[in-house]
Amino acid sequence: MDRPTDDLDHRILAALHARGADPRVARVACALSRAGEHGALWLAAGLAGAVVDVPRRGAWLRATALTAGAHLVGSLVKRIVRRPRPVHVEPLVRTAGRHSFPSSHATSAAAAAVAYGALGVRGVPPLAAAMCLSRLVVGVHYPTDVAAGAALGALTARAGARWVKGGVREVQGGAHD
User: Fold this and answer.
1) pTM surpassing 0.70?
2) How far is Cα 130 from Cα 135, in angstroms, rounded to an integer?
């Protein structure tokens, strides 16, 4: 069944995917896509934060769990919706599955941006945005897949942000996690 957004989805994807014709852009987009597989980049970043930032270790672990949980939610929604991946562009990377909606990469990226942002990390949102964009450049998602994934990740992490920040207040108050 065609949706009113299908034509626009196809055209935006084709335009962004065309940017992957530049080998430099393709290399970066492919690297970001590989790093984001199964939320690996974001989970590793959260665990590294827990190792390095000992006073807020509990908060980092909660933020990492929240990011993993958002990724899981996105993966479950994907299994329910079962939207096929784009076929009108040649993908630059292999994918772990056949389904496209929502983008799990975008879900975990947005969740990490919100969850780690609650800990004051400012570099994650631009990297998360680049990760989302990479999924279009490599041709494995429609823009609506990425937008839905990002919204799902941000909302999931926002719902748990208070839980993450609870550890920050405890550390500031003198108690440790």
Assistant:
1) yes
2) 9
